[in-house]
């Protein structure tokens, strides 16, 4: 039987982690953390922030540690060298143990204010995936995303519009399964496994803004090929079981 969780007062979140992967995101990370601190304090939500620094070669780690000293509710985990999306995302998704988790990339292209809309519908779902209807990315990245989401939907049998987006989810999901991917496929793996386990899932339109600092790596061809390869291998392996 699908595993669901008890309903709560829709205005109440007993504990929240804002979980942030960061790679050479020092400037945008500071802005994202400060905006997150302000919003959650205004909402009176018990919260903490988890920052996973993936071996940045700028001063991201220094800024993360300074933020941790300033606010006191921030945990910093740092890789000595760059481990890539897969290893970082697995920690971002699975390390938090609070009731709810909001995954936000360190580039601050997703305003933390998206949290307000997630909270409004949280009682009906276990996993809420953001959908960038107005995506502020390059044409190539939009095309790659369109094709990738189509392939995830066709191969998995579960319709999805924006699988590599932000997610608001119950941490207890990971009492049912663990993530194993090694590339950006981890996003899709999380969605597919949650669907297969019977969790209540929906997509919700979210705000997406221009990247203010630095450069994204999500459109890298080699990274995209590794992600597609892992998607096919995962689906094939599960169909053989």
Low-confidence stretches: 1-11
Order of neighbouring strands in the sheet with most strands:
3-2-1-4-6-5-7
The number of domains is 1
Number of strands: 7
Tell me the CATH architecture.
Alpha-Beta Complex
What structural class is derived from the secondary structure elements?
A: alpha/beta
Rounded mean pLDDT is: 88
Q: Helices and strands, in N-to-C order?
A: EHEHEHEHEHEHEH
Largest sheet: 7 strands, mixed
Distance from N terminus to C terminus (CA atoms, Å) equals: 20 Å
- CATH T-level topology: Spore Coat Polysaccharide Biosynthesis Protein SpsA, Chain A
Q: Give the class-level CATH name.
A: Alpha Beta
- CATH homologous superfamily assignment: Spore Coat Polysaccharide Biosynthesis Protein SpsA, Chain A
Q: What coarse outline follows from CA principal-axis ratios?
A: globular
Quick description:
The protein has 241 residues and is of the alpha/beta class. The chain has one domain (16-240): Spore Coat Polysaccharide Biosynthesis Protein SpsA, Chain A, CATH 3.90.550. 40% of the residues lie in helices and 16% in strands.
Report what the structure shows.
- With 241 residues, the protein is an alpha/beta fold.
- It has a single domain (16-240), classed as Spore Coat Polysaccharide Biosynthesis Protein SpsA, Chain A (Alpha-Beta Complex).
- The protein contains 7 helices and 7 strands; from the N terminus they run E-H-E-H-E-H-E-H-E-H-E-H-E-H.
- The protein has a 7-stranded mixed β-sheet with strand order 3-2-1-4-6-5-7, with helices on both faces.
- The longest helix is centred in the last third of the chain and has 20 residues, at 221-240.
- The model is unreliable at 1-11 (pLDDT under 50).
């Amino acid at each position: 039987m699908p595993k669901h969780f008890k309903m709560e007062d829709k205005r109440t979140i007993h504990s929240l982690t804002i979980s942030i992967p960061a790679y050479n995101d020092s400037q945008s990370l500071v802005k994202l953390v400060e905006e997150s601190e302000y919003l959650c304090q205004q909402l009176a939500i018990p919260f903490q922030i988890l920052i996973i620094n993936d071996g940045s070669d700028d001063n991201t780690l220094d800024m993360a540690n300074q933020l941790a000293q300033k606010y006191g509710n921030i945990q910093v985990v740092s890789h000595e060298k760059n481990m890539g999306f897969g290893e970082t995302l697995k920690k971002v998704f699975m390390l938090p143990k609070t009731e709810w988790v909001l995954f936000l990339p360190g580039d601050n292209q997703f305003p933390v204010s998206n949290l307000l809309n997630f909270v409004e519908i949280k009682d009906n779902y276990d996993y809420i995936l953001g959908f960038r209807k107005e995506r502020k990315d390059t044409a190539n990245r939009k095309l790659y995303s369109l094709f990738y989401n189509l392939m995830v939907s066709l191969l998995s049998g579960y319709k999805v519009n924006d699988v590599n987006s932000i997610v608001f989810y119950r941490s207890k999901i990971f009492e049912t399964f663990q993530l194993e991917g090694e590339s950006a496929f981890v996003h899709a793996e999380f969605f597919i496994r949650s669907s297969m386990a019977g969790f209540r899932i929906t997509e919700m339109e979210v705000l997406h803004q221009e990247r203010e600092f630095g450069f994204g790596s999500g459109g890298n061809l080699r990274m995209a090929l590794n992600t597609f390869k892992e998607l096919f291998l995962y689906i094939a392996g599960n169909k053989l079981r």
